[in-house]
Specification:
about 400 residues, mainly beta, four-stranded antiparallel sheet
Amino acid sequence: MSTAYFKNTVFIIFAQILLIGITGCNSQPEPVAEKSQEDLLLYVGTYTDGDSEGIYVYSMNPESGQLTLKHTVAGVDNPSYLTMHPNGKTLYAVNELMELNGNPGGGVSTFNVDQSTGNLTFESQVNSNGGAPCYVSVSNDKKWLYVANYMGGNISVHPIAASGVAQVAKSTHQHEGTGPSSRQEAAHAHSVMPMPQSDYVLSADLGADRIMVYKTDEANGLSKSSEIEIVAGAGPRHMAFHPKRNQLFVINELNATINAYDVDKATGGFTLTQSVPTLPENFDGDNTCADLHVSADGRFIYGTNRGHNSIVVYEINSETGQLTYVEHVSCGGDWPRNFTMSPDERFLLVANKKTNNIVVFNRDQSTGKLTPAGIEASVPSPVCLLFP
C-alpha cells in the first residue's frame, strides 16, 4: 500500500466520521409550531317579526364544528336571504317586506364587511320593485344584482357600483302564470341565479310552474329568452347547477320532487332527464320543500323537507347524471329552510325556522351520508345560512 493511498483513505474515513457527527447533531429537526386553522365566519339571515334582531354573525371552529356568536347586526328588517359579493367586502340582504319607507315593495340592503372581524356596517338600501323579495344573487360579471320578489311575481336587476353598493333597479321583469294549487293564484318568483360560465340567468317561479330563462343584456341587465315548463302543481322553488356536468337541478316545493335537466349552455336549451321524490313512500302528511345544494365534487345532492322535517340525500352518477337514493336524515328541528355546507364540506348546517335552531351534521364525503355532530346554536327564526 502506497503512502499516498494510505493518506487519502485516512482522510476520507475522517471526513465521513466528521459528517456523521455533524448530521447526527441535527438528526432531530427543529419542532415547527402547527398553525391552527382560523375560525370560519357564518352569516345568518332571519325573520324579524318575532324575537330576532336582524343578521347574526357566528364563528365556526373548522375542526369541531362548534358555533359561537360574534356579532348581532340589529335594525335590519326581515333579512331573509343573504349573498356575498365575490370580493368578500360587501354583503347583500333582501328585506322581505311588502312596503319599504312608505312605498310598495321590499328592499335590498348593502353592508360593508369588516375584514378583520367579519362584522357588518349598513351602507344603503334600495327598493326591490316587488313585494316580499326572497332571493338575491350576483351576476357572473359582478356588475349586476338579481333579486326575486315572491309576492311581486317579478325579478329586479340592480347595477352594482364600483364601491359594491346595490343601486336603484335598472329593469324589472314581470312573470305571468298560475297553477292548480291555492298557492299558485299568481306568479311567485322564488329564486334567480346566473348559469355558470354562460350568458343565461334563470328564475324559478313557484306560482307559474315555470323556470324563466333570461339572457344577459349590457343596457338593462337582462332580457327574456325562453321558459322551462314544469308539471302543473310542482311549484319550482330553488335551483342548483352541477359543478362538472352541464346539468341543472330544481327542487319543487309543492309536489316534493327534484328535477334533473341536461343543459345546452350555448343555446340555453334544457332537457328533463329525471324527476325523483324528496319524501319516503310511506309519508302521507303535509310537506313543502325548501332548499337544495350539490356537493363541490358533484357526487351528491341534498334537499330539505318542511313537514317531514328531513334532509334527503341522492348520489349523482358521474357519467349519466342519474340520481340514486341514499338516505333521509332528521333535520334536528322543525321547518328546515336554507342549509349550507362548510367550505371544506366536512359539515352540513341546517336552519330550522320554527324551532329557532341551527343544527350541525358531520358529512361523510365518500358516502354523502350525514350524522348529527351534537352541535347546535339557538337563533330566532333562522332562514338563511351563508359562509362567505
